[in-house]
């Protein structure tokens, strides 16, 4: 989950930096816009990585539901998880 959060933060920052020439909050930093072309590529790569990690996260929750008979999706919605203590 921390990886998804970290990627999201970098994705937003690179999204602001990858805006069109002379547009956006960081336009003053990009005097030579052609030298920052790698930012758009990095933004696309991080977006695809985030999508892949989110898909893996959803598949993991589904797998937990199937294998452990846990109500993972229900606990995500209502915030409570049933736990049984072995006495």
Structure report:
With 87 residues, the protein is mostly helical. It contains three helices and no strands. The chain has helices at residues 2-17, 38-67, 72-78. Helix 1 (2-17) packs antiparallel against helix 2 (38-67). It is elongated.
List the helices and strands and how they pair.
Blueprint: H1 2-17, H2 38-67, H3 72-78
Helix pairs in contact: 1-2
What does the average pLDDT come to? 76
Strand content: under 5%
How far is the N terminus from the C terminus? 32 Å
Morphology call? elongated
Structural class: mainly alpha
Helix content: 55-70%
Largest sheet: none
Rg, rounded, reads 20 Å
Figure out the total of helices: 3
Order of helices and strands: HHH
How many E strands?
0
Instruction: Give start-end ranges of low-pLDDT stretches.
Output: none
Compact summary:
The model has no long low-confidence stretch (mean pLDDT 76).
Label this structure with key terms.
3 helices, 87 residues, mainly alpha
């Amino acid at each position: 989950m921390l990886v998804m959060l970290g990627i999201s933060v970098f994705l937003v920052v690179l999204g602001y930096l990858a805006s069109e020439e002379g547009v956006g909050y960081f336009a003053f930093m990009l005097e030579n816009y052609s030298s920052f072309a790698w930012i758009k590529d990095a933004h696309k790569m991080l977006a695809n990585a985030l999508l892949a990690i989110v898909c893996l996260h959803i598949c993991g929750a589904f797998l937990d539901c199937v294998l452990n008979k846990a109500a993972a999706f229900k606990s995500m919605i209502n915030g409570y998880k049933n736990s049984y203590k072995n006495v």
